[in-house]
Amino acid sequence: MTDSITETVLAHYAHILTIKGIVRRVSLGKMCEQDFQRFAVAVGDESRELFETEFAKANGHKSVVAPQTYLTSVLGWGYGPEESALLEDGTSSDSLGGLSLNGLRVMGAGQDLKFLHRITGEMNIVMDVSIDDVQFKQGRGGPLLILQMKRSYFDATNILLVECFETFIGR
Predict the structure, then answer these.
(1) For the whole model, what pTM was predicted?
(2) CA dihedral 38, 40, 46, 48 (to 10 degrees)
């Protein structure tokens, strides 16, 4: 006989197997220099190319650039969900590419990032998100899922800007 949490984890595992590899495209919209400059201040990045247009242009950019980790650090691109739409652990399904792991606590377990091109203000960005792998594990504290996602960020001309391979644990 399985307990309730094991049943919940196994149900999510079975569902994720059915959507594994399906790519979902999400429009993130036009980038805003002020937003990524606020991010730069918050993370303590004072690079001149992030704040000074002429300096950025002298270094080959069309305008100021975003910090390298900006795109992969933002978990939600809208105003945010209503409180009633949050999962039990306080996260949103948006942070998991639309995947709801309701009934589980979700924890980040690392990222592997590839930066290919810098992001500048006024760029229109789209993100492709997919689940690359999911594993069911029996841990010391009980059953858990290891979820590996891929996020690829493109500009309006479909040039790949950043790739993010991200691991989450659901328990």
Answers:
(1) 0.84
(2) -80
